[in-house]
Structure formats: C-alpha cells, structure tokens
Amino acid sequence: MQRDRSSNSGKGRAAPLALLALAVGAFGIGTTEFVIMGLLPEIADDYGVSIPTAGLLVTGYALGVVVGAPLLTVLGNRAGRKKMLMLLMGLFVLGNLVSALAPSFGLMLTGRVVASLAHGSFFGIGSVVAAGLVAPDRKAAAIATMFTGLTVANIVGVPLGTFVGQVVGWRTTFAAVAALGVLGLLGIARLVPDTPRPLGTRLGGELGAFRNPQVLLAMAMTVLGFGGVFAAITYIAPMMTEVAGYSDGAVTWLLVLFGIGMFLGNLLGGRYADRALMPLLYVTLGGLALVLALFTFAAHHKVLAAVAIALVGALGFATVPPLQKRVLDQAHGAPTLASAVNIGAFNLGNALAAWLGGLVISAGLGYTAPNWVGALLAAAALGLALWSAVLERRAPVQDAAGATAPAPAPVHH
C-alpha cells in the first residue's frame, strides 16, 4: 500500500504542470476550430463564395477530425503517448500555415483538413494521459482541466482572432494560430511525462471496446448533443448581424459570451461528472434542446440572443467531461482508441450540424432555422441517454469493470 501512496503522490506533483501543457495545446486547437465562425463572411468575400459554401470550412475540419482520430491513433498505437502528442501538434502547425497562405478556397480547405487530422487524436490521447495523472475519483476533473484550454480559447483566442481577422486580415489570424501550436508543442515536450503505451495493449483489444453497446451509445449522444451546439454556432455571425441587428464588430463580443458559457459549463461538467454522471447528462441535454428551440425566437432580440448564446455554450460544454469519462469507463482497459473516436464523434456532430444548417439556410428558411435543427439533435441525444440508462439498469453486470456501474459487482480473479 505504501508504494501506491508514493506513486499517487508523484502523480499529484506532476499533474498540474502536465495538465497545463495539455491545456495550452488545447487552447491552440480550440482557437483554430472556433475562430472560423466569426470569420466566415470575410473568408467568403475574399474567395468569392457564398456563406453556405464557406461553411464547408467547418464541415471539412470536422470530418478531418472524424477520420484523423481513429487513423492517427491506430498508426501511433506503438508509439509513446507523449511522442504522439508532439507529432500531432506538429501536424496542426503545418495545417494552419497552409490555411494562412492559401491562394484558393480549395487550398484553404485542404489546410483546414490537415490541421484537423491532429485534433481528435490529440484530445483522445490527451484525455487518457490526463485521466492517468490523477486518482480514479478525479478523472473527469482532470479531463475538464485539459478542455479548459479549449474553452478559454473561446474567451480569449477566438474573439481576439476574430478581431484581428476583421481588422488586419484573416490570414494573420491563422498565422498566429500556427505560432500557438508551436508554443503547445514546446510545452508538451517540456512538461508532459513520458508515458509509453501500456504493456499488453493491442489494437484488437482497443477495437474490442466497440462491442460494448454503451460505448456506442455514448458516442451517439456525443454526435447528436454537440451537433445541437454547432447547428446554432456555425452560422452565428450572419444570424446575429442579419436577424438580431448586431454590427460585424459585435460578433467578437458575442463569441466571448459563448466562450464564457463554454468555460463555466466545462467546469460544471468536470465538477459533477465524477459524482452524478447520467443525471448531469439528462439536465444538460434537456436544457440544451429547450434553449436551442427558444433561440429561434430569442435571435430577434439583442439581449435575449446574447443570453441564449451563453447558455448554448454552457449547456453544450457541460456534456463534454461526462461523455468523455463515460467512454473511458465503458472502454475499461483499452481506452485510447475509444477516447480518440469519441473526440471524432464530437466533430461528426459538428459536421452534420454545419451541413444541415447550410441546407435549411439554402432552402430559404432563414438564418434562425439551424436552431431548430440543433434542438431536434439535442432532444435525440437526451432520448439516447435515457435509453442507455434503461439498458444499464437491465444488465448491470456488464459494467462491473466500469466506474459508472449502478452498484458494486463482485470481482472474480
């Protein structure tokens, strides 16, 4: 027992700095993922394309995450986790440099996809590393700490990047994001402990986690729930300027509100997911569906629109730590690939929502129509959460190895 306490003590000392390094990488990734929302009109004008076509920069990035998450995780299966995190940040830097210099829309889209390939594996592997740095009852909090970088990006990085993009030019924004990636790479190299792949872990074992229906249900909740967020936020700039009556410059401050909501929601999710994971999902997904439905009407009023944006960020990101922890719990013993694929699932939701939002706008239903799409997606995610709980109550023995089992099960050696 003394050795265990000593090991935990070492973990405790190393954890804050390592989590800080992961958060810095997450800050850079979060900035490039979300800053595109505020710059869609400028990029569309520069390349001479429509707003829905420019929305492909969101869809393309999200699909790149979906593909890159499992692909790069599998390719890096034999590498140490720290080495993989460093390689992924290098790929991220390259993609943003391509975007900053792209002479055509097609090359700009290519740069977005290259950068996005690193995204899923970074957060997937990073979640496993973060959870491994702390005691079992602090896993969701550690994951939330890493994702704090992503949420702070929306308070500082995205609004600042949007402002710079509108005043100086959007290419400068992407060059600055590439520099952030270099900073993240250096932080990981310096502060994250070298954690090689656990002995005995094989690709077959990682793939076996997907035989658990609870893993698949959690990923489906991720796709639909986070899709609800992106349905509204992808087209936030034209919605706020054309419907609510805000100026172009005000979009920056509205994105700050969204970022503050994300930050607070992430903290809430990290605080309560270790204690009451499923009830937290019921509340956040139900609340998200309701707020998105009301956003359709609130978008016509400046103050109500601002409140709705903050609530969408808070409720959406309160689902991130519990959903990521649920996948880690249910994929017990082989979490790396499942964790990365779940990050891909967040972005599959982003891509689905951006595409559906573009469809309803192109159909002439107006800039508020994507909010209804988001409300339906979030409501569907709530339905899956309730179904998951019913299945778990019927077959609690399946989760004996997972931390979320409803009652302790006997362990057979």
Descriptive tags:
Growth Hormone, Chain: A, 413 residues, cell membrane, mainly alpha, globular, disordered N terminus
Description:
The chain crosses the membrane at residues 52-75, 87-107, 113-135, 147-168, 174-193, 214-238, 250-268, 280-298, 304-323, 344-366, 372-391. Keywords: Cell membrane, Membrane, Transmembrane, Transmembrane helix. This is MFS transporter. InterPro entries: MFS, MFS_dom, MFS_Efflux_Transporters, MFS_trans_sf. It is found in: Cell membrane. With 413 residues, this protein is an all-alpha fold. The chain has one domain: Up-down Bundle (Growth Hormone, Chain: A), CATH 1.20.1250. It is 80% helix and 0% strand. The protein has 16 helices and no strands.
Report a brief summary of the structure.
This protein has 16 helices and no strands. With 413 residues, it is mainly α.
Total count of domains: 1
What structural class is derived from the secondary structure elements? mainly alpha
Overall 3D shape:
globular
Radius of gyration: 20 Å
Largest sheet: none
Helix content estimate: over 70%
Give the oligomeric state: single chain
The total count of helices amounts to 16
How many beta strands in the DSSP annotation? 0
Question: How confident overall, as mean pLDDT?
Answer: 81
CATH architecture title = Up-down Bundle
What is the CATH T-level topology?
Growth Hormone, Chain: A
